[in-house]
Each structure stands twice: as C-alpha cells, then as structure tokens.
C-alpha cells in the first residue's frame, strides 16, 4: 500500500464551442487539480406500519464529475480563461502627434490624448506660441497618453493647448474579459508519485469551467486563479477522465 503525492507537469488545451482544440499551453504551475466523483441517491421509503421510514430500495445514480483547477502562472492566455475572455494579438506602428489641439481642464484633471506609449524625448506642449515647461506648467503620463496642468503654472486655469510627440510601436496580447459564459478546456499531464517513484498520467477530456474568485491586480502576493465546473463525456469515451498509474520505469 502507498500514498499519492504528485509532482506533475500539467497542460491545458482551450476548446472551442465544438470541442475542438485551439492549442496546448504548458506546462503550467498547477497548485490544485481536484476531481470529485459524486452520485445522487434515490430512495424508495416504506410507508408500512412496521417499517415506516425505512428504505425499501436505494439506488445511486452517477452525477457529473466536479473539477477544480488552480494555477499561479499568469500568461495572457490563462488570464483570459480566468476572466471568461478571449485574446487578440495587437501590433500597432509608431507615429507622430503634431500640434494636436487639446483642452486642459481647469481643475488639474487629466485629459486623454488620441495615442499612448509616448517617447519622452521631443514631447512638447504649447500655449499659443509659447512652449510650456514640463513639471512646472504640465505633467505627462507617457505610457497612458495623459496630460494635465500643474497648479501654479502657466495653464493652471486650463484651456486650449497643442501637443506634439512621438508615440512608439505597441505589440503584445489583448485580453478581452467578460465576454464568455464559461471556459471549456482539456486538462492533462504526467508526473511522478513522489512516494513510490512511479509515473502517472491524468487526462480530463472536456471540462466546462468558470472562475470562483476575482483576479486581484493590486494583490501583495503572487496572483493565483481558480476555475471550477464539471467534466463531460466526449465522443468515443464512456468516462469523463482517466488516471493511469504506470509501472516504474526500469532502473
């Protein structure tokens, strides 16, 4: 007899609405992958005088297997799954904003420029023909493309200015969150039972999952996500998942 204590490499394949693969990601640092097989109980109770309330018949009917998956790797593809979203590759070129007319608020609130990811060098704000002084007359958030007046500066009261600057190219992955009702995945992997040294494999063919908690982008610790739901049968299988306890490889 032996226990089960697994070190494993687990992978995820996000499935489309037809259950088809969209590409395998991994191995993922999986902190929990729990399966719970349950059964619903049907009881035929006695109404007879001598046995009232006792079970005359008891039948167990299998229920869908519960799946709970937690991970603390957070690439964009996994964040999208945890936020019921989709990903999109973004790739925009660099360009120049030249004498863009902007109206600064009078209360030192930020105004949004039409572009973002600006270079600090060459960024310029003018009031009429006069070039304003960064830090004295205005402030800039170059990454977000925000500008505001500085209290006590030449444009403290706000008003019309022009902005000139070079915005850099942007590439990456956009996560469009909150647009799906569920995340459908295949979860599978291989590992080692650390007590016995024997290899194992686990394959959950098709599970429909949704997040159980929020993603905290201001967390003081590493962000972890948890998805939970149910496994379902796939064509050609009469069981929703497989666990294989393999014989130890030859020494």
Structure characterization notes:
It is a single chain. The chain is mainly beta and 251 residues long. The protein has one helix spanning 76-82; strands at residues 6-15, 21-28, 30-36, 39-45, 55-62, 66-71, 86-92, 95-104, 111-112, 124-127, 130-131, 138-141, 146-149, 159-167, 170-176, 183-193, 199-211, 225-231, 241-245. Strands 1, 2, 3, 6, 16, 17, 18 and 19 form an eight-stranded antiparallel sheet that branches. The chain has a four-stranded antiparallel sheet with strand order 8-14-10-11, with no helix packed on it. Strands 9-13-12 form a three-stranded antiparallel sheet, with no helix packed on it. A hairpin with a 5-residue loop joins strand 16 and strand 17.
Descriptive tags:
251 residues; mainly beta; Pnp Oxidase, Chain A; 4-stranded antiparallel sheet
CATH topology of the largest domain: Pnp Oxidase, Chain A
Strand proportion, as a percent range, falls in: over 45%
CATH A-level architecture of the largest domain: Roll
- Strand tally: 19
Spell out the helices and strands N to C: EEEEEEHEEEEEEEEEEEEE
Radius of gyration based on Cα positions: 29 Å
Can you tell me the residue ranges where pLDDT is under 50 for at least 5 consecutive residues? Answer: none
Helix content: under 10%
Specify the biggest β-sheet. 8 strands, antiparallel
The CA-CA distance between the termini, in Å, is: 21 Å
For this structure, what is the CATH class of the largest domain?
Answer: Mainly Beta
On the 0 to 100 scale, the average pLDDT is 94
Q: What is the chains' assembly state?
A: single chain
SS field, number of helical segments: 1
Q: How many domains would you count in the coordinates?
A: 2
Structural class: mainly beta
């Amino acid at each position: 007899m032996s226990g089960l204590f697994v070190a494993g490499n687990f992978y995820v394949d996000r499935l489309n609405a037809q259950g088809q693969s969209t590409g395998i990601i991994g191995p993922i640092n999986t902190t929990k992958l729990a399966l719970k097989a349950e059964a619903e109980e049907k009881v035929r109770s006695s109404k007879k005088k001598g046995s009232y309330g006792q079970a005359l018949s008891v039948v167990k009917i299998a229920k869908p297997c519960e799946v709970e998956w937690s991970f603390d790797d957070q690439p964009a593809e996994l964040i999208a799954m945890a936020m019921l979203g989709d990903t999109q590759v973004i790739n925009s070129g660099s360009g120049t904003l030249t004498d863009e007319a902007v109206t600064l608020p009078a209360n030192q609130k930020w105004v949004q420029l039409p572009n973002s990811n600006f270079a600090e060098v060459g960024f310029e704000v003018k009031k009429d023909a006069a070039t304003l002084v960064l830090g004295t007359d205005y402030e800039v958030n170059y990454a977000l493309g925000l500008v505001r007046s500085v209290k006590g500066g030449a444009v403290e009261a706000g008003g019309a200015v022009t902005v000139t600057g070079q915005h850099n190219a942007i590439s990456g992955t956009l996560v469009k969150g909150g647009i799906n009702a569920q995340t459908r995945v295949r979860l599978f992997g291989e590992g080692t039972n650390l007590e016995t040294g024997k290899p194992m494999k686990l394959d959950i063919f098709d599970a429909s999952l949704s997040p159980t908690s929020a993603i905290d982008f201001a967390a003081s610790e590493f962000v972890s996500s948890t998805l939970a739901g149910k496994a379902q049968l796939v064509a050609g299988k009469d069981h929703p998942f497989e666990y294989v306890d393999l014989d130890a490889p030859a020494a």
